């Protein structure tokens, strides 16, 4: 038999009385528990799902030459195109026209009586691939049974229902038995297995897809646990022999790699007992883990001994918070106890230094306790500084100390105060340093207030560009919708913030004017350069109004026209250009009687001190390096 059957012992059923024909076929038709037909050949002792060619009619053999295939869903037939995957319940017109050209002939008849039970191995073959069809066809097929390829109607018989099981456990056992029969491994996935088992009768032993997935997952997990247990048992058997082989080859270091492990054992007979390299790697990891644990325990014991011995030695040395490690280390090395202890001699210097630092903590703590008795003078100086800070705060509250105050103006106010005189007798921060610390705080607070009040004024559109705006400014600060951080500011602080905003506005206006003037100058210089390269050349005897139409398309002229005062700058650029051109023509040799060209000055020596520039050039003319634009006029 080819493949596994859909039931344990299917009851054979003949397809009916043999049809009249020229010959009787040796094939016997049966149906499985789900009513699906298959054919068994007693002489060859094999069974197939597909109808044998010798039982097919001429029309059925002709259909196999096309892309269409006929399938059965219950009592209805549907047709599937194997190339386009399209499906239909009615025979396609092209297929019908082709089959109509094939004359009908009787198919070979199957035996009129089949054995009650076919020979051993006559169970139904493995389920072939289920065809893909449209959603409607699938719905009908699911309601009527699994669709199977049919080339001619089989005689009707009683439909066998899906096997039923008395309990859920029996159903799960049948499903698991199907998985075992299919040889499903421990690392298979549900998507891979589904294609192989979906056509098996025992696939429907469990009613829902969730139950099938859960049973499959449990089955795979049990296989994985079994494999893991078998691997662990195998490793446990090999471990003593591997350890003995390692001892014969020098053992295994805690830092050894798998390559070293393999090199030590690959020529030993025990290496051939491993099933694969992954099993050897797993045993290597376990052995190395044990080696590392033993090595760590040994190191920990040595470390505890060294710490105890070194701590005892450190307590015998007199140290202060300023004692250096190099001095203590020299004393330790020269001690008799250190020389007698071999383990202490192998103690890493980093661990010795760390223990020394721990010991220094206790030494410093003792020094601090001794220093606490001499802390009174320091406390008095701290009180003096606190008193001077209180003096600073008093002047802040009075308004005489603010963010724009200077040390000279403040000193004139407090020169006779006792708290200032007391600061002269203290060490540490001076009175002037404390003053500047407080001034930094005031400047930070002033900046925060300025940002808040400027945001409020921008929201109310209240300007602060000149001193006459103070009344509107003050009214906006006291308005009901003003933030508390603004309305609760003292009037003197509001006035100081107003003066600061006015100063900033004036400075920004000056900067804006300078930027505009600088841009006008740059565009004017560029325009003069454009005048020089204009084509056709400009007549320097013409006025600006005469040449305006000729130059109005220049990008530099357009930029100037768009700016305030740009037209006046353009007029000035034209006047300067005309003046320079006139001076150039006036300096030309042809215009001055007796003058000579520049190339005729070869008799002059450039190295003559009288011809050298008196002052070095500090910066290159930006107009000489600015990128120029070519104009096509």
UniProtKB/TrEMBL annotation:
| The entry's keywords | Coiled coil, mRNA processing, mRNA splicing, Nucleus, Repeat
**Domain WW: start-end pairs:** 21-54, 68-94
Q: Where in the cell is it found?
A: Nucleus
Coiled coil keyword on record: yes
Q: Name one GO biological process term.
A: mRNA cis splicing, via spliceosome
The UniProt regions of compositional bias labelled Low complexity, in chain numbering, are 110-132
Q: Which residues form a coiled coil?
A: 206-239
Name the GO cellular-component terms: U1 snRNP; U2-type prespliceosome
Q: Which residues form the FF domain?
A: 168-222
Q: Matching Pfam families, A to Z?
A: FF
Q: Where is the composition biased (Basic and acidic residues)?
A: 609-633
**SUPFAM superfamilies from the xrefs?**
FF domain, WW domain
Which InterPro entries did the record assign?
FF_domain (IPR002713), FF_domain_sf (IPR036517), Prp40-like (IPR039726), WW_dom (IPR001202), WW_dom_sf (IPR036020)
Region spans: Disordered: 1-23, 104-132, 144-164, 582-633
Name any one GO molecular function: RNA binding
Is Coiled coil included in the keywords of this UniProt record? yes
- What name does UniProt use for this protein? Similar to S.cerevisiae protein PRP40 (U1 snRNP protein involved in splicing)
Q: What is the lineage of its organism?
A: Eukaryota, Fungi, Dikarya, Basidiomycota, Ustilaginomycotina
